[in-house]
Amino acid sequence: MGRVEPKTFFANERTFLSWLNMAVTLGTIASAMLGYSSKFGTEGQGQLTTTVIGLTLLPISIAFVAYATYSFHKRVGMIRRNEDGPFDSIKMPMTLAVILILAL
Known about the structure:
Order of helices and strands: HHH
Radius of gyration: 18 Å
Shape: elongated
Number of helices: 3
Oligomer: single chain
Helix content: over 70%
């Protein structure tokens, strides 16, 4: 097998950082909603809805981080072993997207 191009490693890191960016965004939104619901929320339905959405988005953002870390290390191993094969994953990103859509 031939030499692995540096752009392959950088593409993997870029994908990892993109997933982490989305996870941090979701975590920030969840934290802001939780902070807003407890500090400024009115008693009743508005506070409950904001709290539930915040508590739902937080584990989803943690799942994004877990998936990003897993796929990054899996791909790094494949790249270092010079394996040919599909580096992409279709099922888990689709699952995370559906979960996120259902949560919203």
